[in-house]
Structures are given as C-alpha cells and as structure tokens.
Amino acid sequence: MTHIPKQLPAGLYFVATPIGNARDITLRALDILASADVLAAEDTRSLRRLMEIHGLPLNGRPLIAYHDHNGARIRPRIMALLAEGKSVAYASEAGTPLVADPGFALGREALEAGVAVTTAPGPSAMIAALTVSGLPSDRFLFAGFPPAAQGARLKTFRAFASVPATLGFYESPKRIHRTLNELCETLGESRPAALCRELTKKFEEVRRGTLRELEVALRDAPVKGEIVLLVGRGGQEEVSAPDLEAELQRALATMTVKDAAAEVAARYGMKKREVYQKALAMDAKARDDEDPERGRTG
Length: 298
Hints:
Cobalt-precorrin-4 Transmethylase, domain 1, five-stranded parallel β-sheet, Methyltransferase, Cobalt-precorrin-4 Transmethylase, Domain 2, rRNA (cytosine-2'-O-)-methyltransferase activity, 11 helices
C-alpha cells in the first residue's frame, strides 16, 4: 500500500513502532510518518530503517534524535517547531512512546503549552508479554526497569509484594538472574512467573514456572535479548505460626526489625503492626539469648 503524504493538523503525534517484527505497525502510524512536517525519534537509525522497509521517504524533512541523554537540550527545539504550527511525529525506539521511554517530559510540556497531543497506538512489549504469559490479565502493574542499586531494588520489590495484580518488569539479560533471586527473597519462591524473551522476533521464547524454577533454569543457561518478566499477583496467603516465625528469622538475619516486619507482612497480607510486634519480641529474645546478663534486673 502506498502512503501518500497529506497535510496533518499541527500538533505532537506519538507513534508506536514494532518491538521486533517490522510488519507489526499500523496503517495510521505509517500515514503519520509519511506526512508529519518533522520526525523525532529515540533512535533515528531505527526509525530510518523502519521507514525504508515500508517505503516512506524523508523528502528532506528534519529527523531529530530525542532521547534520555539529550532531552533537556532538544526539547526546546521541538517545542519551537510546534509553536510554529508544525506537525511533529515522535517514535519510540521500539514499542509505545512513554512506556519506559523518554517521551513523557515532551508530552507533558506540549500539553502545558496548549499543543494538541495525540497517539497512533500499537505494539507494546508489556502487553505482548501479558498476552502469551498465561498469567491473569484482568489487573496488572507495569513496573518498568528495576533500580540498579541493590537497596533501592529490594525496597521496590518489597513494595510490590502484596499488590493484587500481575507485575511486569523490563530487565537486561545481564541482571535477570539477580532479579529473579531477589524476587524469590522478597515475593516468595512459589510465585508463578513468565520470562518472555525476544517477543515477535525469530527467537521468541516464553519460559513459565515459579520464580525459583526460572532462577534455577537460568543458572547454567543464561539468556540473551530483550526481556519482559511477569510475576503472578500477590494477595493474602495463609501462614502458620511456625512458618511466620521462620520467615521473620530469615528476614531478621539481614534486615532491621522494621524492614523485616514490613516484608513479611506484605508477603502474607498481614497487618504491619502485628508482624512488627512479633519481630520485635523475636529480636529481643535473640539478644537476650546472646547475652543472658542483659535481661536481668538488680
């Protein structure tokens, strides 16, 4: 099909692009890319390649690189073009703009300036993974890339422990094994999960199992490519008194009383104060056992 350039109303157009297979692009997205006065992209090489595949010439139109590292510097230039009444199409490197993508600040600034903002919806790695994961899709939470620092990562994972929704993370092949280990520690080893790799590409793969099963499988078989990790929903889980004590002992070995209580309470959907009091008593007993003189009075 030939996409003949036509006049687009002034405004900012967010264009979703394929996450792998180049044919996963909408006709409307191609129309916008063929017609916009100005093109902006997270990765200009990827957009050029996509346009070449679909026979869309630049015809001398500006193609502006806009990404995390130059956003503050380039955004004024794009805003000036919008103020002149230009139509500007912004394309993510892959998938839907603003989903783990630098387009958010641009969209917000355009809206604050009274610029018309619209979208040509399409592919999203998170939604594609959810579709093939076999996990509940009626409620889900996209958590993006976990923080790099361990303390921040563990805090993030603990915060999601009791969320009654399927969780979605983007992760790199270099860190996925570490992430699975930390999720086992904070969310529980038995949570169902799906590791989705290279979606819509030649070597697409989906591994399903518990968090621990996926972690074990990766010990001797590291993976490559783009990864979406989905984790089954949290919720109330019955726990016996001995199991609760064992969980608290495990947590207290590496955490403060407050953090240990918060993690275990979140995992089992219990009241934080109740678990905190239990953890406090266990911690005090452990200290007394280490120093019998500590608990004596004159």
